[in-house]
Amino acid sequence: MTPALLADTVREAGALALSLFRTELKIWTKGASSPVSEADIAVNDLLESRLRSATPDYGWLSEESADDEQRLRQASGLDVDPIDGTRGYLAGREDWCVSVALVEGRIAAAGGGVRAGQR
């Protein structure tokens, strides 16, 4: 994966999250008490579509995707939190970000993020 692909994709995901920020969103609860919104899913889908198509041999772990333990057998992988800080995002606060980490050999090798205040 090139640094440019990671950076461009995370910026695009951040722009999508910002376009949905402070709008009316469908919200539900996953697990016992974790909020999730259609914005979380939209950002996850964008990241997954762009990054997984470019790196089909990488593992994928995201808060908003079903876990596939096959990822543990991959040499490289992506760890994603499409909207890290969903509670703040849904409350209209700017204490959230889009987070993506590239993991190689179980070591974080690179990361990208866009926080709410970055425009």
Proportion of residues in extended strands: 25-35%
Please state how the strands of the largest beta sheet are arranged side by side. 3-4-5-6
SSE pattern: HEEHEEHEE
What is the average of the pLDDT values?
A: 92
Computed Rg? 14 Å
| SS element count, helices | 3
Q: Please tally the β strands and state the result.
A: 6
Structural class call reads alpha+beta
Unreliable residue runs:
none
Question: What form results from the Cα inertia axes?
Answer: globular
Please give the alpha-carbon distance between the first and last residues: 25 Å
Major sheet details: 4 strands, mixed
The share of residues in helices is 25-40%
Give your account of this protein's structure:
The chain has three helices and six strands. The two termini are 25 Å apart. The strands form two sheets. Strands 3-4-5-6 form a four-stranded mixed β-sheet. A two-stranded antiparallel sheet has the order 1-2. A hairpin with a 3-residue loop joins strand 1 and strand 2. With 119 residues, it is an alpha+beta fold. The mean pLDDT is 92. The longest helix has 18 residues, at 3-20.
